[in-house]
Amino acid sequence: MTPHPAIELGRQQTTLDGLSPRIAPALRIAGAAALAIGGALGLARQDGMQLFFRAYLTSYCFVLGMVLGSLLLVLLLHVSRAGWGVVVRRLAEVLADHVPLMVVLFLPIALPLFWGSSTLYEWADGQAAAHDELLRHKAPYLNPMFFAIRAAGYFAVWWLVARFFVDTSAAQDASGDPRLTVRMERASGPAILLLGLTVTFASFDWLMSLDPRWTSTIYGVYYYSGAVVGAVALWILAAMILQAGGRLKDVITVEHYHDLGKLLFASVVFWGYIGFSQYLLIWYANIPEETAWYRDRQSGPWLYVSLALVAGHLVVPFFGLLSRETKRNKAILGFWAAWLLVFHWIDVSWLVMPNLKREGFPWGPIDLCLAASLACFYLAGVLRRAMDRPLVPVRDPRLAESLAFENF
Amino acid sequence: MIEEPTSTEDKEQAPVVAGLVAEFPSPEALVAAAAKVRDAGYRFWDAHSPFPVHGIERAMGIRPTKLPWLVFAAGGAGAAGALLLQWWTNAVDYPYLVSGKPLFSFPANIPIIFELMVLLSAFAAFGGVLVLNLLPEYRHPAFSVRRFVRATSDGFFISIAASDPKFDAGAARALLESAGAAAIDVCYAPAGVPRLPAGLKWSLAVAGLLALLPPLWIARQRQVPSDTPRLHIIQDMDFQPRYAPQGVGRFFADRRATRPPVPHAVDVGGLQTDSHFHRGQINGQWAATFPIPVDREQMERGRDRYNIYCAPCHGLAGEGDGMTHQRAVTRREPGWVQPRSLHAQNVREQPAGRLFHTITHGLNTMPGYAAQIPAADRWAIVLYVRALQRSQHAALDDVPPELRPALLQESTRP
Fold first, then answer.
1. Domain that holds residue A342
2. What average pLDDT does range B178-205 have in this prediction?
3. ipTM confidence score
4. A283 near B CB under 8 A
5. Which pLDDT score, from 0 to 100, does residue B413 have?
6. Order of strands across the sheet that contains B183-188
7. Any CB–CB contact under 8 A between A288 and chain B?
8. Is the CB of A280 less than 8 angstroms away from the CB of B110?
9. Which terminal Cβ of chain B has fewer Cβ within 10 Å, N or C?
């Protein structure tokens, strides 16, 4: 096959040339500072370390959702042979290619388990677990060593999937070989399967085991569906920010935003569908060991957070994004993307916090510090990735189709 | 280039001009021409191409479709209808408690709301597309032009209908020519009444009649008396896999379908911790007192139960001369023993608990009545028996003072 000819889009348009290389290190320093402030605030309070680690886990899983959600979106574009999305696929790749960073950021969650700390996970306390019938039965699965081995497995899968798709895409930038597109399409199906399984079990391990007596088989889908909402929202915002900075001006059009808006709408509805499926079954069966989890989320301040999630993560954006006009209006779409990004963070916090913090306002300065810290680390990584490659797969065989894309 | 009409099949009627059909060499030419026709102010016209052509809507000046509003309204109606239906059926018309949930439980209603919303939305989208596009249309006039069939393979066409208020054959033709048409044809309204394929009507009628047979058969099955079980159309939960009592089961090792109670299990109400009430004994001695209230209500209850269960043998007054006894005497039943008179000295001297014990477990030929008569009722019977005994051995002091003169007067009568 003949290499695909490059389409001249202009370097100014498709790279971040001219952006100061100091921004990423500055972001890292800001992240470290926010982490230190959060830690200090935690140490100053009596139960502060628990709050600190829960807040850390919240924001970690939020950022992880961005990474894995973006990775899934890349795979979705390949598996559906989407012509429309080629111009925005590189952005998703840039947002997804951060598995090593997530490994480093995972250490504060995993390492304390090995010196017997049960600050985060109740099951890690061997003494308490030995006296609890249920925890004793779960101990062969929920123990620090197996926990770490599994985590290593998840990270290995994610890293391999991300490496393959990001590197193949980069190789195509150089060679223009259309066979690479076919290769990625073939690999995308199995990769989605792998990703679905690993994210399911990762969410079981890292989030669901916060409540080690409670189980829900749909939990992984719930977490991942929310993560995809956040990832699409971030995707849209990334495209808008780049365009505001003068990049990709003529590349991403209202037609692409329209389709991104459809994806955002669909993922919001899917999240609601999954969340309700989990709730309905537990509500109907009304078995105490299952309802306990919702009881935590229906008492105290979390009742209002739950209601806010139903409204702000589903009902209001549903009607807000329903019309074609709102999806084709950049300002309105950008508003909903930012709105849903915030609500996805609230959603993750709603998974993590309720069985620890039962009174008072759900969030405090520690949560804000850690959200800011992990966001800074992540954005620094995103910037570094974005600056060393074109922002568009410049020699993708479907780029011309994508550039000329129109919705009917 | 102008061609004569090619459609010559219907010669018996003068063909009615339905409009003009122009072919264009490329999708780009089609878009450019569509913009010209639009600007000329035509309303009843259309563009035809084998595949969707980008920008054609704008070039044709097609306004945004109303379909989304139709779908939205239908979806809303579906959701509201589902909610109303469930509220009416579950909470108002036929209140039926499920799992202890409130009669009107919103979470349980959401799946139905969702489904009906989707269903009606889909109907509205499907039907709306047909109606808004004036479909189905089997005999579009453009098909009277031979070359028009290429609109589904490689031809690009614009048709202008003669019904358009601005239509003028000469002007429209000039416009299409100036727009770059490669060929322009006049199309004609389909002549004559469309005919159905031969035999279709009859086949449909026969099929319709045959389709009536199953419901008729079912209706007959449901009306006509029969010895065999009826055809069971709606199964509900009428036939379920189950084990017969005392049957053989396959699940447990002992192959018993009926499970024996686990060791030390006590059935509901079987604990019987109150010795006085359940056995008539206090500290191993027959109780002389009653564990039930001694009042008129219990007395009435006791009489009621006594007349049902005891009187057939012991007699309404407790003399041991009930109907059973009288009949046995009449028939000279061999070996018949007269039921005990409740007024016998030894019976009168028995404590209440002993009488209760006798009713419960029986004595001599009398069977126990624990299975038929609950403990509280057995006590009520004992109470009534005590009253009967008292009635036959009463002293004058037992009679209220105001009634005594009448009683005495009666006893001195000859």
1. 19-397
2. 86
3. 0.82
4. yes
5. 67
6. B45-48, B156-161, B17-24, B183-188
7. no
8. yes
9. C
